[in-house]
Amino acid sequence: MTQEINTQAVADVLLAIREKSPLVHNITNYVVMNNTANALLAVGASPIMAHAQEEVREMVQISSSLVINIGTLSPAWIQAMEIAVDQAKKTKTPWVLDPVGYGASALRNQTVADLYKVCPPTILRGNASEIMGIAAQAGAIKGVDSTAASHEALEAARLLVNVWNNTISISGAVDQVASAGRFTQIHNGSALMTQVTGMGCTATAINGACLGVCDDTHLAAVSAMALMGVCGNMAAEKAQGPGSFQMYFLDALYQISPDDLEQRLKLEHHAL
Ligand SMILES: Nc1ncnc2c1ncn2[C@@H]1O[C@H](COP(=O)(O)OP(=O)(O)OP(=O)(O)O)[C@@H](O)[C@H]1O
Ligand SMILES: Cc1ncsc1CCO
Ligand SMILES: [Mg+2]
User: Which of 65, 90, 97, 259 is most exposed by smallest CB count within 10 Å?
Assistant: First the structure.
C-alpha cells in the first residue's frame, strides 16, 4: 500500500510501534548489540537478539521483522543469517540489511551477495560508500568513491531500486530514502551522531521496528530516519559530548511525541 509521506504519517508509525510493540529479531554485531536493543525498547518495540543456527527460524516465525547487520561476521553467523533470511522469505517477514563495511573485505562482499541470492532485503540501509559499493557490484554503476557523499549515492540507489524494486535508505548529513518512483530527503540529525559508535546500526534497527508495523516500505524507511534525525536534534541540544549525547538520544527515543515531529521534522520529496 502506498501512503502519502508526511509528518502525520510518520507520527502514526511511531504511535503504532508504541501500541503494538513489534518483536524485532536482530542478528547484529557485537559492538552495538546492547545499544540497538536499548534503542528498540526506548522507541516502544521489543528486541530479540538471536544468532544460533538452531533457533533463528523459530525467532523469525514469531517476529514482525528481521534485522541483519554484517558488522562482526564469522562463518557460523553467516549461516545463521542465511537461514533467517530464508525463513523470512517463507513467512514473508520483512527484513532490513545493514551492509556494515561493505567493500572493506571479500567476506563482507560475499556475504551480502549470498544473502541477496536467498532473498533481497525489503529495505537496504547503509551509508553512501556502502550503497555505492553494492550498486557497483550489481553492475548498476561503474566505480566506487569511498568518500562518497550521500547525494552521490542517490544515482546508485536509483539503479538498485530498478534492479531489485526494494527501498534503499542512505544515511549521512542528509538522509535519503529511495523507492520505485519516490525519493525523500530527511534534513535532521546532528554531527555528534558520527561520534557515537553504531548510530547507523541503531538506524537500521529502528527501520526494523517501523517495518514491523507499516506495510509501506518507503514510509517505514522514512519514519525510521525521521525518528533518528529528530531524536538526534533533541539530544544534541542537551549533550556536552558523545557520552551524554548517547544518554539523551535514548531518552529522546522514549519521549518523542507527534508534537516534536511537527515542530522539527524537515522532509523534502522528489520524484526518483
Ligand atoms: N553530519 C551529520 N549531520 C547530521 N546527522 C548525521 C550526520 N552524519 C550522520 N548523521 C546521522 O547519523 C545516523 C547514522 O548515519 P551514518 O551515515 O553515520 O551511519 P553509518 O555510517 O552506517 O554509521 P555506523 O556504521 O558507524 O553505525 C543517521 O541517522 C544520520 O542521519
Ligand atoms: C566499530 C564497528 N566495528 C564493527 S561493527 C562496528 C559498529 C559500527 O557499525
Ligand atoms: Mg553503518
Answer: 259
Nearest to 18 by CA among 209, 203, 207: 209
Atom of ligand 2 nearest to the CA of 100: 9
Give domain status of residue 168, yes or no: yes
Beta-carbon contacts of 199 under 8 Å, excluding residues fewer than 6 positions away, are 193, 228, 232
We report the CATH number of the domain holding residue 117 as 3.40.1190.20
pLDDT of residue 146: 46
Report the distance separating Cα 268 and Cα 205, nearest Å: 23
pLDDT digits (tens, 9 = 90+) for 158-169: 999 999 999 999
**Could you say which ligand is closest to the alpha carbon of residue 196?**
1
pLDDT tens by residue, 1-11: 567 899 999 99
Is residue 61 a part of any domain in this protein?
Answer: yes
Inside any domain, residue 8: no
CA–centroid distance, 126 to ligand 2, in Å, is 12
Residue 11 lies in a domain: no
Does residue 205 have its Cβ closer than 6 Å to ligand 1?
A: no
Boundaries of domain holding 62 = 19-271
Residue 198, annotated as binding a ligand: yes
1 lines ligand 1 (CB under 6 A): no
7-49 per-position pLDDT tens digit: 999 999 999 999 999 999 999 999 999 999 999 999 999 999 9
